[in-house]
Write a structure and sequence with these properties.
By secondary structure, this protein is α/β, with parallel strands linked by helices. It has one domain: Aldolase class I (TIM Barrel). It is 30% helix and 17% strand. The chain contains ten helices and twelve strands. Strands 7-8-9-6-5-4-3-2-1-10-11-12 form a twelve-stranded mixed β-sheet. Helix 2 runs parallel beside helix 3. Bound molecules: S-adenosylmethionine and iron/sulfur cluster. Iron/sulfur cluster (SF4) binds next to helix 10.
């Protein structure tokens, strides 16, 4: 089959699957503190429906999956889904993004199911600051989850959301912590995806500022030569060989031209961009007995509709109708 190419020539091989919009913490840049309206359970795709979708997507060239949410570990029996997805011929890589609050209980089962890579979301090592950001006092659980993941043998990247005026004191300690433990930190510029429209450009701590902070305090960084241009993070490395550091500069240096991703939400909508306004319903197809050909036609159409990129830096920008937790970051 011809590859999943959009009208700008970008080939798509990467599918992000949100398995739930629910979460056990309440990061202010993603969720409201109270009164979150979650999808009704019957609107959330079953494991069988997700697997059916993936099986149809593989012949179109999808080889890499990332499971996300909401918090994917609140979805019961997640290792079963991972085991089944790993077994689909053509799937070469599965990763999971998690806040690690429940990871201590699940790390080993996830590894046994075939998962190899974890992105753990942690902005700070300071318990009070963690509580303030997430509105939950769960840092000890996260640390226990990270230890369990290390014991289980995972490769770990650490997602740090960079909110200016808040996170500056944590940038260097997080880099040091990751360097010592052999994790790759990935600093993600704060994006306009929070549920309460709190985002404002002045609150974006830029990748350039963070590179300068880390280079000054820990040691000089240089761009990694021959890094994968289609990866969202721009990779840097310490000149002294102390590891790599990634920066996701979605606001100050958008990387839309290299995008190779599509997204399936937990309520069965296909989205060609994190910031897409339009989305395509595939739950209806999956529940009405559609065959692979119909699902593939829907995926091709969604990719054909894909825009050149988000417009965060333009006056035309309109935030998406769903906040981060309901899309799947
Ligand atoms: N609950 C999991 C977690 O927190 O990692 C998975 C879902 S969460 C929506 C995925 C990632 O989105 C998080 O790791 C966090 O780094 C990122 N994120 C959430 N809100 C964001 C925002 N407004 N701007 C930038 N990144 C954000
Ligand atoms: Fe939950 Fe992840 Fe959103 Fe934080 S960023 S509220 S952990 S879904």
């Amino acid at each position: 089959m011809t590859p999943l190419k959009d009208t700008f020539g970008r080939v798509h091989d990467n599918l992000r699957i949100s398995v739930t919009d629910r979460c056990n913490i309440r990061c202010f840049y993603c969720m409201p503190e109270e009164g979150v309206k979650f999808f009704a359970r019957e609107d959330v795709l079953s494991f069988e429906e997700i697997e059916k979708f993936v099986r149809a997507a593989v012949p179109l060239g999808i080889t890499k999956l990332r499971l996300t949410g909401g918090e994917p570990l609140v979805r019961r029996d997640l290792p079963t889904l991972i085991r089944n997805l790993t077994a689909i011929p053509g799937i070469r890589d599965i990763a999971l993004t998690t806040n690690a609050v429940l990871l201590e209980q699940h790390a080993e089962a996830l590894r046994d199911a075939g998962l190899q890579r974890l992105n753990i979301h942690l902005d700070t090592l300071d318990r009070e600051k963690f509580h303030k950001i997430t509105r939950r006092d769960d840092l000890p659980k996260v640390m226990a989850g990270i230890d369990a993941a290390v014991r289980a043998g995972f490769r770990i990247k650490m997602n740090i959301v960079a909110v200016k005026g808040l996170i500056e004191p944590d940038i260097v300690p997080m880099a040091r912590y990751c360097r010592e433990r052999g994790f790759e930190p990935r600093y993600i510029e704060f994006m306009p995806l929070d549920a309460q429209s709190l985002w404002d450009r002045q609150q974006v701590l830029s990748a350039d500022d963070m590179i300068a902070m880390i280079s000054r305090e820990i040691g000089p960084l240089e761009p990694v030569p021959d890094a994968d241009p289609r990866a969202p993070a721009t990779e840097y490395r310490y000149l002294d060989g102390g590891g790599t550091v990634g920066f996701i500069a979605s606001v100050t240096k958008p990387f839309c031209l290299n995008c190779n991703r599509i997204r399936l939400t937990s309520d069965g909508k296909l989205r060609y961009c994190l910031f897409a306004i339009d989305e395509m319903d595939v739950k209806g197809l999956l529940r009405s007995g559609a065959g692979d050909a119909e699902i593939q036609a829907a995926i091709r159409q969604n990719v054909a509709d894909k825009w050149l990129g988000h417009e965060i830096n333009s006056v035309k920008f309109v935030p998406p109708p769903r906040p981060m937790y309901a899309i799947g970051g």
